[in-house]
Inverse folding.
C-alpha cells in the first residue's frame, strides 16, 4: 500500500464530500437558513479556523469528508433553522449537495474532453494505434502508439473491425503491415499470437480513431450529456443487480478499501486504452462523484433523498410529517446504513476487489 497513493485517495475523496457539503451550505445561506458549522473532516474537532457570519469553519480529526450543521436541523420550533423553513427551501437545501456532485462531474468531464479531444468524423476511417502492449508482437516488430495502420497483406484497412478480422484469420501466420508514422510510410512483419495473454489481442494493441481538439465551450455540452448517460448507466446497473440480471462482479458494491484498490490499479497504469494516466484518474473520480450524488438521492431517511421525500407531504398537502417520527426514522435508518457500510467494507478485506 503506497503512502502517497493513500494520501492522494483520501484527499480527493474528502474533496468530493466537501463539494457535496458546500452545495448544502451555499444554498442554505442563499435561502436565509443559518448554518452553525461547516466542518472539514469529521469530529472530534481540532480547532475553529475562522468565523464567517454566524458560521464556524472547523478542522476535525478524521480526514474523510466534511459536514454542514444547519441551525435547528431537526427542530421546527427554532426560528431561522432548517426544520422551520418552508418545505421548498428544505428540499432545495437537501437537493443542493447531490446537485453539486453532479455539476462537478460535468466540470471533470469537460476537462477530460478538452484534454483528449473528441473523435474526428472526417477521419473515421483511420485506424490508429492508441496503445501497444509491452512485449507484444506489435512492439517487437517496432509499431508504436500513434501509428496509423494502412494495409495488412496489401489489403486496405479502413476500420478497426477489418483489422481485427484479418489479424484473427492469420493467428500464427506472419503478416505484413503497412503503417504511417508522421509523414513516413513503412512496413513491418509480425506473427499474431494464437494464445495472447488475458485482456490482450493477437497483435497486442488497442485500436482507436483520431481525435480533434475541443474548446471548453464545445466540450461543456458534451460533458453534460456524458454525465447524464453515466448517471443513467449507474441507475440501470443498480436496477439490474437488484433484479439479478447483472453479473455479481459488475454490480458489486464496494467500500473505502474497494475504492482504494481500484484507484491503485488506475494510478499504476501507463495509459489504459492509450489515455494519459492523469485522465484515467480524473475519470475514476468523476465516477465517484456521480455515485456520491446519486447515492445521496436514494429515498432513505438518513440521506438527502429521504429528507426530500419526508418534506413532500408538507409541500404538496400542507401536512407535515410529525417531527418526532421523522427524527426517529432518520436515526434508525442512519444506524442501519452504518451497519450496511460496515459489512460492505469488511467484505472488501475478506474478498478484495479484482479487476479484469
Amino acid at each position: 500500500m503506497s503512502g502517497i497513493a493513500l494520501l492522494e485517495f483520501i484527499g480527493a475523496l474528502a474533496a468530493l464530500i466537501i463539494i457535496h457539503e458546500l452545495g448544502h451550505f451555499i444554498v442554505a445561506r442563499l435561502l436565509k437558513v443559518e448554518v452553525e458549522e461547516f466542518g472539514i473532516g469529521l469530529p472530534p474537532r481540532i480547532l475553529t479556523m475562522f468565523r464567517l457570519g454566524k458560521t464556524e469553519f472547523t478542522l476535525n480529526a478524521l480526514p474523510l469528508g466534511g459536514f454542514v450543521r444547519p441551525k435547528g436541523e431537526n427542530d421546527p420550533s427554532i426560528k431561522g433553522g432548517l426544520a422551520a423553513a418552508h418545505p421548498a427551501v428544505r428540499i432545495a437545501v437537501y437537493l443542493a449537495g447531490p446537485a453539486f456532485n453532479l455539476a462537478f462531474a460535468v466540470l471533470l468531464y469537460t476537462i477530460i474532453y478538452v484534454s483528449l479531444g473528441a473523435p474526428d468524423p472526417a477521419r473515421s476511417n483511420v485506424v490508429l494505434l492508441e496503445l501497444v502492449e509491452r512485449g507484444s508482437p506489435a512492439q517487437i516488430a517496432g509499431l508504436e502508439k500513434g501509428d496509423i495502420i494502412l494495409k495488412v497483406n496489401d489489403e486496405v484497412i479502413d476500420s478497426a473491425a477489418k483489422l481485427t478480422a484479418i489479424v484473427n484469420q492469420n493467428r500464427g501466420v506472419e503478416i505484413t503491415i503497412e503503417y504511417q508514422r508522421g509523414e513516413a510510410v513503412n512496413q513491418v512483419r509480425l506473427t499474431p499470437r494464437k494464445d495472447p495473454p488475458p485482456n490482450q489481442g493477437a497483435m497486442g494493441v488497442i485500436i482507436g480513431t483520431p481525435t480533434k481538439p475541443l474548446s471548453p465551450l464545445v466540450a461543456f455540452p458534451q460533458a453534460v450529456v456524458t454525465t447524464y448517460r453515466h448517471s443513467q448507466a449507474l441507475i440501470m446497473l443498480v436496477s439490474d443487480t437488484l433484479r439479478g440480471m447483472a453479473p455479481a462482479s459488475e454490480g458489486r458494491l464496494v467500500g473505502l478499501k474497494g475504492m482504494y484498490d481500484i484507484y491503485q490499479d488506475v494510478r499504476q497504469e501507463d495509459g489504459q486504452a492509450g489515455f494519459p494516466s492523469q485522465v484515467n484518474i480524473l475519470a475514476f473520480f468523476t465516477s465517484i462523484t456521480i455515485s456520491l450524488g446519486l447515492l445521496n438521492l436514494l429515498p432513505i431517511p438518513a440521506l438527502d433523498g429521504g429528507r426530500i421525500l419526508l418534506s413532500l407531504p408538507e409541500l404538496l398537502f400542507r401536512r407535515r410529517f410529525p417531527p418526532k417520527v421523522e427524527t426517529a426514522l432518520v436515526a434508525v435508518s442512519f444506524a442501519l446504513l452504518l451497519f450496511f457500510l460496515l459489512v460492505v467494507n469488511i467484505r472488501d478485506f475478506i474478498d478484495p476487489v479484482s479487476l479484469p
